[in-house]
Amino acid sequence: MSADLLFLKRRIINAVALLLSAAAALLGLFFLAWILWTTLSKGIAAFNVALFTQMTPPPGEAGGLANALFGSVMMCLLAVLIGTPIGIAAGTFVAEYANRHWVGATIRFVNDILLSAPSIVLGLFVYTLVVRPMGGFSGFAGVIALAFIVLPVVVRTTDDMLKLVPAQMREAALSLGIPQWKVTLQILYRAAAPGIVTGVLLALARISGETAPLLFTALNNQYWSADLSEPIASAPVVIFQYAMSPFEDWHALAWAGAFLITVFVLVLSLFARLVLLRKRVPND
Amino acid sequence: MQETLIAAAERRASRDARHDRRFRWMLAGAGVFVLLALGGAALSMLWGGREAFATFGLDFVTSATWDPIGQQFGAWVPIYGTLVTAAIAMLIAIPVSFGIALFLTEVAPTWLRTPIGTAIELLAGIPSIIYGMWGLFVFVPMLAEHVYPWVDANLGQWPLIGSLFAGPPLGIGTLTAGLVLAIMVVPFISSVMRDVFLTVPTRLKESAYALGSTRWEVVWDVVLPYTRSAVIGGIFLGLGRALGETMAVTFVLGNAHELSTSLLMPGNSIAATIANEFAEADTDLYRSSLIALGFLLFVVTFIVLALAKLMLRQLAKREGR
Q1: What ipTM is given for this predicted complex?
Q2: Taking a C-beta distance cutoff of 8 angstroms, is the pair A259, A40 a contact?
Q3: Chain A: nearest CA to B107, how far in angstroms?
Q4: Closest of A183, A185, A244 to residue A211, by C-alpha
Q5: Could you tell me which of B16, B40, B25 has the C-alpha nearest to residue A93?
Q6: CA-to-CA distance for B179 and B136, rounded, in angstroms?
Q7: Is there a contact between A109 and B294 if contact means CB atoms under 8 Å apart?
Q8: Residue pLDDT tens, chain B, 321 long
Q9: What is the torsional sign of CA B201, B202, B207, B212?
Q10: What letter would DSSP give residue A56?
């Protein structure tokens, strides 16, 4: 009898635990759906063509986000252009030259810390590094701050992806007398390319919504500006400013901007996964 | 003829060697750049905050007076806010993440695992400013209207912990920030936990099942002990994120520099203080104090993340990776 009771108790505990785990997953999905629904419904309600054609308005006037979107696109692309080559180079060094060496281990460790370090800290770093010596906020400083966020993501994915390339491929190429730099550039990179592209896309997705490091590097600009030595508007900073304001029409613009960024980030992350998936299937 | 061929081959070999050296140095330079980036970040903030540290000394950390007009800067309120919001977030996020990881590895039917896993990971990719806006415009009114009045009337009456939950239902405040942070870190912790749960050898689990264990017993007595260090690593990773999260917290925390026992009252955090006040900081001492705050945040997150890495590496070592 007591054995039966014990068995019953174990089964009840099991059922409760499994039920709770399903509830936890539901809870996660519920908040995902809630947040997405809010962004989509409020964003679509505020969506119109003027977003792309008009400048950010003063309160009470109609306007769009053209200068902010332009600033974001420009700064993000430049940051990727700067961060990616350095990241690929450092990732290659760790995977191909310093693997299983304390130097490689140290760079890996530091890079992982950099990867999860609060972005606001990187913003402060770039402030003391660029803004203060140059004597003012500038789009250039914003680009550097974003590039510091791109860098660790690319280092990590390059490192991971090069480690997946079979050693036979290197050995076969080297045995033909091909110098190592050529092996790396023309063979290893080709094999690892989909993974590295995925990393770059994920990095782009990450910086396109970054706000904190831009607050005191690129600052903000009410007008159209493509001059990197001047403060430049960016979508996240404008969203922050508008959402924290008491004005209804600014709130609507903020939601429209939030909608654009969210859609961009989600599409980009899904696309990045597809790139990796498509390549993997024939390889396996 | 033969000599020229040999000479050409030698020339080529030496050219290749030269290029290889150059290539190697270039890559090594990029690697060193990564090291310099982190070191530079730490040093530049220590340098930028030197004025604040020199002026206030230890008071900078222990004093709760943050007075830009009187030029008195003590960071206890933001430090306290950072720690409390992160603690609330972890209290909620750890069990929920564990539940999700358990669901994704042991409970859900196989066809459901990938889509739900991807959905949870997408939650991690949403920019934090979106969480902040959602928090401010949707979550805060909901809490203020439906949840906090009840919390104040019921939990607020409890002995000992009652004062934590008593207060006007403003909606914004420490507890709300903790809740939003919890939503934000759950995807991170649960995806680490899922990944490490998947590394448990099937033999171990099947042995336990063969002895008549229930699924829960397998997870609690086999999977969890096997992955313990990596699970703690994942939790620390989430904690590092919760401590440094800026935008979401800035929206819902209320930016108040007063110490309050109630979690329903507005508060502040290190990152929110920097985000709110940096552009307005008009004196060197003010700016230096904010950078010094950034330095403190950096040191704390560095320690937390370093511990996370070490813990995660323990499992990887056992795996022979």
Answers
A1: 0.89
A2: yes
A3: 7
A4: A244
A5: B25
A6: 12
A7: no
A8: 677 888 888 898 899 899 999 999 999 999 999 999 999 889 999 998 998 989 898 888 888 888 888 888 888 999 999 999 999 999 999 999 999 999 999 888 999 998 998 888 888 889 999 999 999 999 999 999 988 888 888 887 887 777 788 888 888 889 999 999 999 999 999 999 999 999 899 999 999 999 999 999 999 999 999 998 889 999 999 999 999 999 999 999 988 888 888 888 888 999 999 998 888 888 889 999 999 999 999 999 999 999 998 888 887 777 655
A9: positive
A10: P
Spell out the residues 6+ positions from residue A83 whose beta carbon is closer than 8 angstroms to its own: A146, A147, A148, A149, A150, A151, A154, A203
Using alpha carbons, select from A240, A238, A49, A59 the residue that is nearest to residue B131.
A240
CB within 8 Å: A14 and B215: yes
If one counts every other C-beta atom within 10 angstroms of the C-beta of residue A6, the result is 10
In chain A, how long is the greatest CA-to-CA distance?
Answer: 82
- What is the separation of C-alpha B156 from the centre of its chain, rounded to a whole number of angstroms? 30
Q: Is B243 on the interface with A (CB under 8 A)?
A: yes
The residue among A40, A148, A141 whose CA lies nearest residue B134 is A40
A230 Cβ contact partners less than 8 Å away, ≥ 6 residues apart = A138, A139, A221
Structure tokens at A73: 């696109």
Angle, CA A79 vertex, CA A127 and CA B250 arms, to 5°: 50
Dihedral of CA atoms B187, B192, B194, B195 in degrees, nearest 10, equals 140
Residue B72 carries which DSSP code? E
The DSSP annotation for A182-244 comes to HIIIIIIHHHHHHHHHHHHHHHHHHHHT--HHHHTTT---SS----TTS----HHHHHHHHHT
Touching A: B residues 291-320, CB under 8 Å: 291, 294, 297-298, 301-302, 305-306, 308-309
Indicate yes or no: CB of B98 within 8 angstroms of CB of A39.
no
Query: What would the pLDDT profile of A115-153 be if each residue is shown by its tens digit?
Result: 988 999 999 999 988 888 888 889 999 999 999 999 999
d(CA B104, CA B120): 10
Residues in CB range of B214: below 8 A, 6 or more apart: A10, A11, A13, A14
Distance from CA of B180 to the nearest CA of A (A): 10
Q: Could you give the CA distance from residue A220 to residue A232 in angstroms, rounded to a whole number? A: 5
How many angstroms separate the CA atoms of A94 and A112, rounded?
Answer: 13
Give dist(CA B162, CA B233) in Å, integer: 33
Q: What pTM, to 2 d.p., does this model score? A: 0.91
Please list every residue in chain B whose beta carbon sits closer than 8 Å to the beta carbon of residue A35. 123, 126, 130-131, 134, 183
State how far the Cα of A103 lies from the Cα of A95, in Å rounded to an integer: 11
A155 touches chain B (CB under 8 A): yes
